[in-house]
Design brief:
The structure is a single chain. It contains eleven helices and 13 strands. With 336 residues, the protein is of the alpha/beta class. The chain has a single domain, classed as Peroxisomal Thiolase, Chain A, domain 1. A five-stranded mixed β-sheet has the order 1-7-6-4-5, with helices on both faces. Strands 8-13-12-11 form a four-stranded mixed β-sheet, sandwiched between helices. Strands 2-3 form a two-stranded antiparallel sheet. The protein is globular.
């Protein structure tokens, strides 16, 4: 039997804080309304962490759920990568705190690509597994965006929420089992950064700049334009790298930032909008957590099934962006 080394996505877990906040709730202290927010963004609700709930707490809960879903033990994990913009501390890494919480000895570190962080983190984890750093990688996207919102700025404060999502990546030798000629696992990724646009989406503070975390500042009109163009082009490039067509995709799971962006990208690349997973109405923009939150929800809801061809895509501050394509789950002829 011919075997091939593949990086498989074998487990998924997520967590949303208990404090669920509606548009109507926000309108009590912000000059806004449910109609205004829904029409412009598609967001209805978001979740906020409690006073003593940290990014590492959310990440730990999502991680434990992913470990359970994958049917492995925490001590089996060799690498932990946490994509976050809102770490518990400037240092140590939030990943190191999660490592301690779940009780394992994995190489653990954070990466920062804001809303694109989850796609970046999977790309890094995939490369590290292929390079021999272990057999299993825990990738977490977790953010407490409510901690850096300026409640006087209704253009940004209504957009974001808190949450965490996690996946398990596993390196396995699997039989060369194809469906429609497509192998299993991570098929390809394209990630990019263009620092000339760094000031379109940023915070007003930082350790080196002014010793403060600062608040989110965004040029919404320009971000919308860049998001549509860059998400579309990176997806097309990723498809070309994988020798696939747009109709090969079963589902596209974008970063959940704005429903209008999702629709515009679908129109630009010729994608059936019914193939786009959208959960933004339930949790808003959770930065690096939004893709795994949407993935977990859609699997539990019976939309995504084993063997589906999925595309992830995201854009965030930097500007940083990218797309990834994978075949979800373990193949029928699975073999270690």
């Amino acid at each position: 039997m011919m075997l091939d080394t593949r990086i498989l996505l074998t487990g998924i877990g997520s967590y949303l804080p208990k404090n669920k906040v509606s548009n109507e709730d926000l309108s009590k202290f912000i000059d806004t309304s449910d109609e205004w927010i829904t029409k412009r963004t598609g967001i209805k609700y978001r979740h906020f962490v409690s006073e003593n709930e940290f990014t590492s707490d959310m990440g730990t809960k999502a991680a434990n759920n992913a470990i359970l879903d994958a049917g492995i033990n925490a001590e089996d994990i060799d690498i932990i990568i946490v994509a976050t913009t809102t770490p518990d501390n400037t240092f140590p890494s939030t990943a190191s705190k999660i490592q301690q919480n779940i009780k394992c000895n994995a190489i653990s570190f954070d990466i920062q690509a804001v809303c694109a962080g989850f796609v970046y983190a999977i790309s890094i984890g995939t490369s590290m597994l292929r390079d021999g750093y272990g057999e299993k990688c825990l990738v977490i996207g977790a953010d407490s965006m409510s901690k850096i919102l300026d409640w006087k700025d209704r253009s940004t404060s209504v957009l974001f929420g808190d949450g965490a999502g996690a996946i398990i990546l596993e390196k396995h030798k699997v039989s060369n089992y194809l469906r429609d000629g497509i192998q299993w696992g991570i098929l390809g990724s394209k990630i990019f950064t263009d620092g000339q646009y760094h000031d379109l989406l940023m915070t007003s503070g930082g350790v080196s700049a002014n010793k403060k975390a600062g608040y989110i500042k965004m040029n919404g009109k320009e971000i919308f334009r860049h998001a549509v163009e860059k998400l579309s082009s990176s997806l097309v490039m990723c498809l070309e790298e994988c020798k696939l067509k747009i109709n090969n995709l079963d589902w596209v799971i974008p970063h959940q930032a704005n429903q209008r962006i999702l629709s515009a990208v679908a129109n630009k690349v010729g994608l059936d909008e019914n193939k786009i997973i959208s959960t933004i109405s339930n949790h808003g923009n959770t930065s690096a957590a939004s893709i795994p939150l949407a993935l977990d929800y859609s699997i539990k809801n019976g939309e995504i099934n084993k063997g589906n061809i999925l595309a992830f895509q995201a854009i965030g501050g930097g500007l940083s962006w990218g797309s990834m394509i994978l075949k979800f789950g373990k193949p029928p002829a699975f073999e270690k």
